[in-house]
Amino acid sequence: MPTTKDHNNSLASAESAAARSKSADMRVALLSACGELFTRESIEKCRRKAAIERLVPNMP
């Protein structure tokens, strides 16, 4: 049975891959695969953040 640590590791791995992704839709797909529940607002926020990162790539 997966432990909380296993879940956190897989979530961190997906978040890391999502952070490297240039596509907001890919981020949503990766995070959704880890069981995160997304609302329309959180998806839009993710898309806006990705758009800003494309304009300002060095932003933390």
Descriptive report:
- The protein is mostly helical and 60 residues long.
- The protein has one domain (4-55).
- The chain is 72% helix and 0% strand.
- The protein has 3 helices and no strands.
- Helix 2 crosses helix 3.
- The longest helix is centred in the N-terminal third of the chain and has 17 residues, at 4-20.
- The chain is globular, with a radius of gyration of 13 Å.
- The termini are far apart.
- The mean pLDDT is 66.
Tally of separate domains: 1
Distance between the termini: 36 Å
Q: How are helices and strands ordered from N to C? A: HHH
Number of helices: 3
Beta-strand level of the residues, as a percent range? under 5%
Largest sheet: none
Strand count: 0
Quickly give the structural class: mainly alpha
What percent of the residues sit in helical stretches (DSSP H or I)? over 70%
Radius of gyration: 13 Å
Shape: globular
Mean pLDDT: 66
Uncertain runs are: none
List keywords for this structure.
single chain; 60 residues; mainly alpha; 3 helices; globular
Detail the topology: elements first, then pairings.
Blueprint: H1 4-20, H2 24-33, H3 40-55
Helix pairs in contact: 1-2, 2-3
Biased composition (Low complexity): 10-21
Region (Disordered): 1-22
Concise structural overview:
Helices cover 72% and strands 0% of the residues. By secondary structure, the chain is an all-alpha fold.
